[in-house]
Structures are given as structure tokens and as C-alpha cells.
Amino acid sequence: FGIVTIAWRWLRQATVAERALTTHLPADDRNFYEGKRLTARYFYEYELPKTDGLARRLLSSTRVTLAMRSEWF
User: Fold this and answer.
1) Can you give the pTM of this predicted structure?
2) Are the CB atoms for 51 and 4 separated by under 8 Å?
3) What are phi and psi of 60, to 5 degrees?
4) How many C-beta atoms lie closer than 10 Å to residue 30's C-beta?
5) How far is the C-alpha of 40 from the C-alpha of 15, rounded, in Å?
6) In this structure, what are the phi and psi dihedrals at residue 68, rounded to the nearest 5 degrees?
7) pLDDT tens-digit profile of 31-50?
8) At what angle are helices 50-59 and 2-20 packed, to 10 degrees?
């Protein structure tokens, strides 16, 4: 759930950045908001897709980790 929560926060930041970039900004502010926008895109491209694999693992009926016994180590 942590990844989804961070994605939600990045969505909020990207929305604010998009709105800000439609106004006349000093170069430093424009760079700041462009950075926010690109970082949000990165998160959605590279981090959020990890939830697919995690969900498959959590929903799997395979209980291999529960079958392991400490004496086998």
C-alpha cells in the first residue's frame, strides 16, 4: 500500500505543477515544477508497476514461505 500512497501524493504534486506551469514563472520556479512533473512520470513508469508483481505474490495460493522450517537452515 505504500507504493500506491506515494503514487497518490505524486499525483497531487504533478497536478499542482501542471497548474503552475500554465502561468508566467521565473526560470527557477519553472525548472522546479518541470522537475516535479518529470519525477512523477518516473514514479508512474518505474515504481507503480511494481504493485502488479506484489499483488500477484500476495494473492497467490502458494505458501512456500510458510512451508519453510527453521531447522532446514
Assistant:
1) 0.74
2) yes
3) -65, 145
4) 15
5) 10
6) -70, 140
7) 999 999 999 999 999 999 99
8) 160
